[in-house]
Amino acid sequence: MTRPEITREPLVLIANDQEWSARSLESILSPNGFRVIRAFTAQQAVEAVLRHHPDIIVLDAQMPDMHGFDVCRTLRDDSLVGPAIPIIITTAGPSGRSQRIEAFAAGAWEFFGQPLDGDALLLKLQTFLRAKLEVDRLRADSLLDPISGLYSRKGLAHRAREIASDAARRHEPIACVVLGTDPAGGAIAGTDGDDGSHGSGYIGQLLRQASRISDAVGRIGPYEYAILAPSTGAAGATRLAARLGNALEAAPGTAAGLRVRAGYCAVADFARANVDVLELLLRAATALHDLQREGDSERVRSFESPSVELSN
User: Fold this and answer.
1) CA proximity to 71, closest of 54, 88, 93
2) Distant-in-sequence, close-in-space partners of 97: CB < 8 Å, separation ≥ 6
3) Which residues contact 303 (CB under 8 A, 6 or more apart)?
4) What is the C-alpha separation between 166 and 171, in angstroms, rounded?
5) pTM to 2 decimal places
6) Residues 107, 74: Cα–Cα separation, whole Å
7) Domains parsed from the chain with CATH numbers
8) DSSP string covering 179-214, please?
């Protein structure tokens, strides 16, 4: 069995408020092919993980606003991190057996005290990185998104071809709706770390409940969800977008500012359509992105026609 090749510069987050210690780590990592980003508090570390998706996280045990062990537990509880991203905890203080045991119990892959052995650190990081890349490869091959429980991009494409083949054989309509949840307007309250990153696990649950059994629902981006709806024309796609959007915005635990927009594309007879099913998905996503970029009050937009308002 071949080991996964490291074909890009891995990204390491160093969370440490001690400048000399952080610079020491960076001086070891940067010349050896690692990109480094910095955080100085636990809160900044959590935000940086959600924003940048680092390959490896190096936490200092003595953070100013939260102990590094607690930061590690918080990250492990967030499904965007889960057990697969290597977390290393370092300390300038005591590094005896009890501290190592507590670090491992918090979910750390390794615990380093001082003086730091740079060669050992690099070897550990390379081993950990290969393990993470293998997990990433397996996830990419999966038909399900591990965060939301919906179809992954690959899974949705596979299911879309099955639905499209049936629609073409029956000369039936088919529609694709792409929903976008605006993270700036508020996420799903109280779900980060419990049900998925930015509430994606909870959103996945809501979409499964609100969609039809025949619909294929997938997560295609951090804040985007696609629904491929068989036997559905333009009017049905509009109603579907309104129903699902309203279901997300009105769900218990949803932040008051959460805003859902939608783009869709539909064809009346897929057998006669001049687009394939993946192009249908791309057009729906394009309609959503145009709507988001313009930033007006419209809530649902067709790829071909003007938008309509979501009914309350």
Assistant:
1) 88
2) none
3) 263, 264, 265, 283, 284, 286, 287
4) 9
5) 0.56
6) 10
7) 11-141 (3.40.50.2300), 153-302 (3.30.70.270)
8) EEE-GGG--BTT-TTTTSGGGHHHHHHHHHHHS-TT
CA atoms within 13 A on the CB side of 88: 24
Best CA proximity match to 220, nearest among 289, 310, 130, 303: 289
Distance CA 129, CA 123 (A): 10
Half-sphere exposure of 75 toward its Cβ, with a 13 Å CA cutoff?
36
Q: SS3 of 31, please?
A: helix
Helix, coil or strand: residue 140: helix
**How many Å separate Cα 148 from the centre of its chain?**
9
Q: How far apart are CA 171 and CA 269, in angstroms?
A: 5
What does the chain come to in residues?
312
Cα-Cα-Cα-Cα dihedral sign, residues 117, 120, 123, 124: negative
Measured between alpha carbons, how far is 34 from 27 in angstroms, rounded to an integer?
Answer: 10
Strand partners, 39: 15
Distance CA 30, CA 208 (A): 44
3-state secondary structure of 304: coil
Q: Which residues touch 48 (CB under 8 Å, ≥6 apart)?
A: 13, 15, 37, 39, 54
Q: Residue holding tokens 């490291």?
A: 6
pLDDT in the model for residue 311 = 44
**Could you tell me the sign of the dihedral formed by the alpha carbons of 97, 101, 106, 109, in that order?**
positive
pLDDT means over runs of 10, the chain (312 residues): 61 94 93 95 91 93 94 84 89 85 94 90 93 81 84 91 93 96 50 46 87 93 94 95 91 73 95 91 94 84 62 42
Tokens 């509430």 sit on residue:
199
